Every structure is written in structure tokens, then in C-alpha cells.
Amino acid sequence: MNPYIVGAVFPLIVLLLRHSNNNRKRRGLPADVAGEPGYAVRNHRSASLMSSAWEGVTTLAELFERACREHQHRLLLGTRVLISTDIETSHDGRTFEKLHLGEYQWLTYGKVFESVCSFASGLAVLGHLREERAAIFADTRERWFIALQGCFRRNVTVVTIYASLGQEALSHSLNETEVTTVICGRRELKSLVDTCGQLDSVKRVICMDDDIPSDALSAHGWVVTSFADVERLGRENPVDPDLPLSADVAVIMYTSGSTGLPKGVMMTHGNVLATVSSVMTIVPNLGPKDVYLAYLPMAHILELVAENLIASVGGCIGYGTPLTLTDTSNKIKKGKQGDATALMPTVMAAVPAILDRVRDGVFKKVNAKGGLSKKLFDLAYARRLQAIKGSWFGAWGLEKALWQFLVFRKVQAILGGRIRFILSGGAPLSGDTQRFINICLGAPIGQGYGLTETCAGGTFSDFDDTSVGRVGPPLPCSYIKLIDWSEGGYSTNDSPMPRGEIVIGGPNVTLGYFKNEEKTKESYKVDERGTRWFYTGDIGRIHKDGCLEIIDRKKDIVKLQHGEYVSLGKVEAALLVSPLVDNIMLHADPFHSYCVALVPVSHPALEEWASKQGIPYSEFSDLCRKEETVKGVHASLVKEAKKARLEKFEIPAKIKLLSDPWTPDSGLVTAALKIKRDVIRKTFQEELSELYAS
């Protein structure tokens, strides 16, 4: 045979075989489980559920001590130096804080372990007893991690509280768990002082910042001390560790309260360790060369698992914030480096809202440049998309390298240029954003599915799975089972795939809700074999290769006047792709035949759109009220709805544009940026009534 023909055909044959094998690969296998009848799968890697990936390690305290012995001289925790703070004023009179941050300063594993031991001893010297609970109420930072590990060495249960939590939820969380010691930042200490009259059990406050406000020192009957002083006390008066057992409660994690007051989920050391162990086996070659950018709230289980995982394998953790993440982030002074550029991470965890913003920012820059730059980007994107979907054109050698050099390396530089893997969790990720990450950042993105009640464990996309819209097979620590939900019309006998409510079983399933036995009995069950199951309320279907897809949620389903069912979360996820939208809440009323929506708009995108349309306005809020603006945003939503093949009754017939964003500080979204549906509905009750009345 002509060698030139062989040379041309061979790569195509190899790719076709690889693509065929990828499609045939079984990622989840049928599982024999007890409990309520249903359709169950397990991970293909092992028949038994994983509790620990490290021999002899049964707690998070043991795991951390092991890592510190093994990697004593390696770098572990890094924090940027604050060089200066400037206040800038915009053209409309608003002021903004801009930061100039320096390089990362690092602590080794050995130094961190010394700090952890000192803090643990200092906590005991202050008078905190092991049977008492401590709360950490602060933004994610170096001392958050040290405090957590210090509490673990004294077998002290840690209550985690979001830094953005309101006063009512804060006092509820601290009083319900009878916390005696609160570890917080300077900003959170002010919230604590404002709430002091409602707190029943707090005796001690440890401030992570050295400059403690004078009013916090002078009242309330609390012993208020700095983090540094607690460490000094511990160094001068060392106390032996009091290490926990696997079944001891490590954390009471308060869910972010998307409905009503938050609930405390009780997690044992064994629960969290099972998820950490499982994810460690899923992400390939995770180890000492990896650098992790930590900026999500550590009071969220996704971040807590991620940081414990990176520390367990000898990696580095560099701290940042959502507002200083990139060079163009809101709080970064113009011309200065964001956290990602300074750190150059290799792995990240993210919630979809953050990834959507990265995608929108890139497309905004590309569209603004226009001309040849835009044409080149569009061509490169289309060719790489062909390659990912299975065409061999553009997948090989020179062309891929060319697009990387000409186009994608500039995009990758936004997050430091070295990202090799991103974990997305906390909410559904749109297919468009997932493709963007795959193509522009040149890195796989693993979409995970789990809940606080399952220590974030559930399912996780395989590294080599390029499909979108799915959340992968079960983690090695979990069974995934579907059970019939006849009211919603979902059955495990459905064709072509079994469908039903998702139930998660395994060692990662938590003990239940703190002081809420009724809710615990409603959501948790233990089968005759001793497996603990959590009933999620989410609806899924399992593909032939054993991967899970989330398709609905029982609580989000509303029946319209003429009998049609609308899944609010499903529709919102589809419409959020619109570049003009910053967030959205769909509202359906059983007494009406159509839906409406509240839409906080994207400021820069809408201003750019208005400029192109030649629409004059004085204030941004004025622009949002204009009829042509409402029509323009609605048209963009309809466009995305058609792309997602939504039914006509699922598309909002009327919308209300909101000029102010929904932030955790506003109380309208959680710290993980999930909408608080009930709170929003009450806050905007008048606007919703007007939409139905007009």
C-alpha cells in the first residue's frame, strides 16, 4: 500500500477507535444494594465502597499529620502581601476600593503543623473544653485552615458559618450549637458585637486579625484575644493532643439557607475522609507539583474537601478572593496582578457562576476587539469544537499548536496559564460554559454532584469524558440509586434510561441535621445492610455508560393553571447563558398559565448593548426601565430558550429588569451564589404582582 495513504489514514483510524472506545467505556456499573427498590450504580473502579485511600488513616487529623511528616519542607499555605489600598470614584459618584497586592508569602508543611499544634494548645489553655464547640466565622484564608486543623487535634467539633450570614441566621447557628468559642476576622467580629445581645453561650472570641476593635474588648463579658496570642500561649504551654475517632463529629456545617433558616449538618471525620479519598483517586496525578487557588468560602463543603485534599497529597494552597481573582477583578488596581496571575495555579475549584463570568469576560473582550482578532478567535473556537466532538480535523499536532499559540494562550493567561484541571460543583454547569473551559483554557473540567448532606460526595465526571450536561459516575465512596417518583411521572422503568429521585448511599453520607430529628428521619434512612442513604429531592436519569444527568428537582416543580409542569431550576440554568443576564429567578403561579422572571442584568453587557442600539439614558436604573431595553433582554432570553428547546410555557412571558446585582451581602443569594428563592419572592413581591397584573 502507498505509504502516503497509510500516513494519512492511520491517524483517522486511531482517533475513530479512540472515540468508539470512549463511547463504549462503562463508567458506572449496576450495583447490588439493599433498602428501597430502585436502579443503583457504583463506580467501575471497585466493587466495595471506599472509606479511606490511606492505610491506617481514619480521621482528618491523622491525614493532616501524615502529610506534614511526609512533606515537611514543602510549601503549603500562601498569602499575598497587601502593598496599598486606594479609593477610586466613578463618574456617577460611587466609590470603589482598589488593592495593590504583592507576591505570595509561604509557610511550609512543617511551619503550618507547628502553628496548628500551638493553636490547639492555646485553645486548651484559654479554657475551651473538648466537649464544647467552636465556630469559625470568617472569609477563607490561611488562619481558617490552621484553626480548623487545630480544633481537630483537640477533638473539638467545628461549626462553620458563612462570613456573609445575616444576624438572624448567625445567632440561630451559634445558639443552636451552643458555641463557646468563636474564631473570626475583624469584619465578622463587628457583626458578632452587633449580635451580642442575642447570643447565649459565647464566652471567648479569637480574632484572626491582630488589630482588634476597641469596642470588642470592652464589653459583652467575652474574653477577646488575637489569633497570634493564642498561638503564643500554646507555644509557651504545650498541651498533648486529644485526637478524634472516625465516628466523632468533625464539623457541623450550616447549609447556606436557600430556604428559611440554615440547617446544621453533622459530618464525622469518616464522612469527610471518604469524599477526600475518592476525589484523590479520580483526579489524575494529583500531587506535590500541584498548586491550588483557594477563594471559595471554606464554610462550603466543596472548598473544605478541596483544601484537605490538596494538603493530603503535598500540594500548595494559595489564598485569594472572588473580587481579586483576575487582573480585571473589581478590587484589583488597574495594571496590577490578580491572584491567579500571581499564583499560576494548576488546579481550581469553582461554582458555575464564577465560570460563567470568566466566559462572559472573554467573549466581551473578543467582541470589543472585533475585526481580524474576532474572526481568528471564532475560527479557532470552531475548529477545537470540531475536534472535541470527534472530528479529527484540528485535533492533531500542528494545527492545535497553532491555535494555542495564536489564540488560546492569551485566554489561559487570565487564570495564570498553567490550569490543568477544574472541578465545578455547587450548581448545574451549562454546556456552553463547559465547552468554553475545555476549549479556551485547554483543561478538562470535572463536574461534580453532591450535597452538604453527603460531604459533596456523589458523582464526579471522569477526566477523559468530554460530554456535557452530565455529572459523571458515582464516586468510589458512593452508590447512586434512582427510585420512582410517580407524582412527577418518573420511573426506573422509563425508556431509554431509568429516571427517578436520586438517593446517595455510602460512608460519606452524614449523620443528619443537628437538633432536628424530624427532618433527619425524613431525609435519611439506613438499610438492612447498614448502608446510610440520603434522599436528595433531585431527579436524575442514568445513561447507558453509568453516568448521571440531573434533569429536575422535586421542590422546584410548579404546576401551571392548565396543568403543565415547569421546572424552575432547569429553565433558569438555560436562560442564564444570555450575556445580558447576571442572574435570574423564574416565578410560576398555579393560578396563571404563564411564567414571569426577575432579571438582575449584567451592567457592562447591557451598557454595551444600549450603546450599539443608540439608546440614551441618564442613570443605569433608567436604562433598565426603558421598554426597548426590556424587549431586548427578553429577546435574548427567548433566543437561549429556543436553543435549549424549552417549551413555550416554560419561557417567561414577562420580565422585570433589576439594576442592582444579587450578592451574598444583599441576602438574596447564598455564599455559593445560589438564589434564595423564598427571600427573593418576599423582597420583590410587589414587582411580581405587577408582572401578573400588567
Automatic annotation (TrEMBL):
Domain AMP-dependent synthetase/ligase span(s) in chain numbering: 99-514
GO cellular component terms given for this protein: endoplasmic reticulum; membrane
InterPro entries per UniProt: AMP-binding_CS (IPR020845), AMP-dep_synth/lig_dom (IPR000873), ANL_N_sf (IPR042099)
Pfam family, one: AMP-binding
GO MF term set: long-chain fatty acid-CoA ligase activity
Classification via PANTHER family: BACTERIAL LONG-CHAIN FATTY ACID COA SYNTHETASE (PTHR43272:SF82), LONG-CHAIN-FATTY-ACID--COA LIGASE (PTHR43272)
Protein name: AMP-dependent synthetase/ligase domain-containing protein
Organism: Clitoria ternatea (Butterfly pea)
